[in-house]
Amino acid sequence: MDLITVSSVLLKWAFVALIGCVGVIMLLGGSYFIYKKVFRGKRNMSKKHWLMLGLLVAWFLVVLGLTTISRGANYTGDVNFHLFSGYVNAWNKWSVSELQLVLFNMLMFVPLGFLLPLLLRRAETFWLTFLVTLLTTGGIEIIQLVTGKGIFELDDIFHNLIGGLAGYFLVMAILVCIRQKRFAIQSVLRGIMIPALFGALIGSAMIMYQAKEFGNMPILPAMKQDMDAVTVENKLLLHRDTDTASVYRNIYANNMQRGRDIAEQLSRKFAVNFSDTIRREGDDNRIFMGKASDSQQADLYYQYKDGGWHFSTENEGGSLSEHQAATLRAEMEQWYSQNSLAPDNAVFSIQDNNFLRWDAKEPEDLAHKENDFVSGIIMVQFAKDGTLSDLFNQTIWNKFDRKLELISSKQAFEQVQAGNFYMYAPFHKGDKLVVNEYALTYVYDTKGYYQPVYEFKGYINNNDHKWSCQIPARR
Predict the structure, then answer these.
(1) pLDDT tens-digit series, residues 141-155
(2) Domain residues for 100?
């Protein structure tokens, strides 16, 4: 789940968890009453203990709801024993969303480590809190595995445990300072040790990333494929000779000013008043919330990573007459030209008598060309009265950067044999992978460079189960 999904599920589940918490506390309260009145029990529970117990029950129900109950059984038997694969994935994609999930897994268990010593004096012992946290997170992962409502991940256990210990060290620092009535520097340093360590790691990663010339390659896997039980049949003619290929750069990649400029151009053209607040949606989208002159919602969805965008209004699209289409085409092309929003090589067409469409094809044999180019698609839909309904612009503006040396096709295939490629569903024991095709193609890295990659194709066991992967070609 991404962070937006987590937040929405949390809001929905919180009320249910509250009701469940009240029920559990009432049940425990009844048991305590019987213990005291019927069995003349000697142990007492203060209001503080009942409060801590209630908070722990509420926390557990919320976590259980987030990790299992709110999910469908879509992960039957899935396990991931690769420690730190979440970090590798976040690095390869340079993804804030992926990093947020790692941090969320830690923060989710901070309340357990914080509240447990407040509930039980015995839990002030490090190893007891460690054990309870480990058993709790391990139990949740086992429930996910058995029910198929999640993946059993070693990464999750590690981060939940780290979060629980961060909560423990924090509360112990507070308790020591209160009891000693002074600032206990050693305890405080322990209390901030884990957040400081992760802050330093994230800061170091950001410095390393900024120091790199090229971006990271999202096609790289977080973990290698297990090829030990897979038979690989190579039907390719591979070469050891190396070559060079052109590298291009998307000039609008990670360019927030581009989004603001487009919002300003749309505002002038269609009389839209955009809010100063720009909403963030995942790693890619930045949403400019706007109102048209007739008070209808009109929003710009700007794709921060590649510079594409989509302007949407509440007007319902309709069919256009031939005269309307010709008039609106001329109007839009003049606007595109004035604001440099469409490439000169775009080819016009009308789709479904409804959409005005411009296509700019990517040049062939990019590896050996050294020219700037624009590729992509523009689609515009209007209402029957000629007012705009939707404007979708997914054109990518690429500038030639330089020629770089490549690895050979044989070296690239060795990466396939080693399992260094991404694959959604893992291989099964006894699978036969037949590789019968390869070509040099291009993908964008996280800094907007259009880099050459080898794309291998084939099938697993039979022709009905197609397979493909991409291996970075730049040496």
Answers:
(1) 998 888 888 788 899
(2) 3-211
Q: Which residues contact 36 (CB under 8 A, 6 or more apart)?
A: none
CA distance 216 to 186: 40
pLDDT for 77: 64
Contacts of 72 (CB under 8 A, 6+ apart): 149
**β strands within 344-409, DSSP E:** 347-351, 355-360, 373-382, 388-405
Q: What is the pTM of this model?
A: 0.85
In a domain, residue 156? The reply is: yes
Residue 464, Cβ neighbours under 10 Å: how many? 7
Q: Which residues of the chain have pLDDT under 70?
A: 1-17, 21, 32-33, 35-42, 70-77
- Judge residue 174's burial from the number of C-beta atoms within 10 Å of its C-beta, 0-12 exposed, 13-18 middle, 19 or more buried: middle
Strand, helix or coil for residue 39 = coil
Q: Which two tokens stand for residue 299?
A: 């929003």
Tens-place pLDDT, residues 271-310: 999 998 888 887 788 999 999 877 889 999 999 999 999 9
If asked whether residues 152 and 178 sit together in one domain, one would say: yes
How far apart are the C-alpha atoms of 327 and 331, rounded to whole Å? 6
- CATH label of the domain that carries residue 395: 3.30.310
Residue 183, pLDDT score: 85
CB-count burial class (<10 Å; 0-12, 13-18, 19+) for 104: middle
Other beta carbons within 10 angstroms of residue 370's beta carbon come to 11
